Amino acid sequence: MTGSAPEHELWFTKLLNDYLAAPANAILSLAEPINKVLPHAQIGPSDHPWTNYMAMEILVALLMIVAALLLRPRLSVDKPGHFQQSIEVIYDFLRGQAGEIIAHGSKKHVAMFATFFFFILISNLLGIIPTFESPTMYYFVPAGIAMLSFFYYNGAGIKANGVLGHMKHLAGPVWWLWWFMFPLELLSHFIRPVSLTIRLFANMLAGEQVTVGFMAVVALVVPVLLMALHVFVSLIQAFIFTVLSMMYVGESTAHEEG
Question: Who wins on pLDDT, 257 or 13?
Answer without folding.
Answer: 13
